[in-house]
């Protein structure tokens, strides 16, 4: 069918992007990862270190290793689109225009960790294999603990029928987030990189955040999701997704005194927002063709796409590919 043909083309396009990204000669963090590939014992994240050890053991060239790691994203997108019956084309566009340039082609560890986490989420949540994958995702990059806490906490709150109970627990969780943010220096025993970032004030990463545009972006998704999505997901799923993005905003504010903490932790915490966008798109498609809601929804989707296109720099997506 034409849909299968389109999806096959998208898989091929994604693979082409990842191959190009893996074989490029320069780009963010690329030299660092090349050095780590030769000395994987320096990688603090256990499973990612094991992967590099294994790839070295079988003499796999560094570009092919990166290509394999990045290709897990395709599996994750396929799994989650099947689980929620959402458009692969739409979610692929969101990834291509927004996430792949800043994550899969630069932050390899976190890209792999989030992809594995999404695959785990797409499985039966009570299955043993899903929890094994959650653990592997955390061991790929320890910051995924933030996503795990966000997921578990949001579904826990969403399970309460009483609105008052949900509000009270949400407020308690928000207080805890800010308490951790204000005492982050005491968490350095968990990961020595915390102290490195806290003392990096000479660099932009160590300074307080200067822009809150990401908050506006997340709020726009929250409002659109609440307004448009009805029967496309269960009530519990809808509440949980909304709480996850609300908590991501709180994480951003709680760690706003150090830019790298605010952006990275909020980014990881909000890893499910492309799923929310795809569900918004699905809900709008289900509205009456010439109805008011579909017209407004189409404008909302167009606005999101314009935002992605405005930030798209074709030259930097593959980060100076050179063969």
Secondary structure topology:
Layout: H1 2-22, H2 30-38, H3 46-57, H4 62-84, H5 88-104, H6 108-122, H7 128-140, H8 144-158, H9 163-182, H10 193-198, H11 213-228, H12 235-254, H13 259-269, H14 273-285, H15 292-311, H16 314-317
Quick recap:
By secondary structure, the chain is mostly helical. Helices cover 73% and strands 0% of the residues.
Cα end-to-end separation? 36 Å
**What is the element string, with H for helices and E for strands?**
HHHHHHHHHHHHHHHH
Helix content: over 70%
> What global shape is seen?
globular
Poorly predicted runs: 314-323
Work out the radius of gyration.
20 Å
Task: Describe what this molecule looks like in 3D.
Helix content is 73%, strand content 0%. The protein has 323 residues and is mainly alpha-helical. Helix 4 (62-84) runs antiparallel to helix 5. The chain is globular, with a radius of gyration of 20 Å. Residues 314-323 have low confidence and may be disordered.
């Amino acid at each position: 069918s034409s849909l299968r043909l389109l999806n096959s083309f998208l898989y091929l396009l994604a693979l082409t992007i990842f191959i190009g990204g893996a074989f490029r000669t320069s780009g963010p963090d690329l030299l660092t990862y090349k050095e780590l590939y030769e000395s994987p014992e320096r990688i603090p994240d256990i499973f990612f270190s094991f992967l590099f050890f294994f790839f070295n053991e079988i003499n796999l060239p560094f570009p092919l290793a990166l290509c394999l790691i990045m290709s897990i994203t395709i599996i994750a997108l396929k799994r989650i689109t099947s689980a929620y019956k959402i458009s692969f084309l739409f979610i692929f566009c969101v990834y291509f225009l927004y996430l792949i340039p800043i994550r899969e082609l630069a932050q390899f560890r976190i890209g792999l960790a989030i992809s594995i986490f999404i695959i785990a989420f797409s499985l039966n949540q009570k299955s043993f294999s899903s929890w094994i994958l959650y653990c592997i995702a955390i061991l790929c990059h320890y910051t995924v603990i933030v996503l795990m806490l966000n997921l578990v906490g949001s579904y826990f709150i969403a399970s309460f029928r009483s609105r008052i109970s949900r509000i009270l627990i949400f407020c308690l969780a928000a207080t805890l987030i800010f308490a951790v943010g204000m005492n982050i220096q005491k968490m350095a025993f968990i990961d020595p990189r915390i102290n490195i970032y806290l003392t990096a004030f000479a660099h932009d990463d160590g300074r307080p955040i200067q822009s809150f545009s990401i908050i506006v972006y997340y709020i726009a998704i929250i409002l659109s999701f609440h307004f448009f999505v009805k029967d496309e997901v269960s009530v519990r799923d809808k509440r949980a997704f909304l709480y996850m993005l609300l908590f991501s905003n709180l994480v951003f504010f709680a760690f706003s005194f150090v830019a790298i903490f605010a952006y990275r932790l909020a980014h990881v915490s909000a890893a499910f927002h492309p799923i929310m966008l795809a569900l918004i798109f699905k809900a709008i498609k289900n509205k009456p063709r010439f109805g008011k809601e579909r017209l407004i929804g189409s404008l909302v989707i167009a606005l999101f796409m314009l935002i992605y296109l405005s930030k798209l720099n074709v030259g930097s997506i593959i980060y100076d590919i050179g063969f």
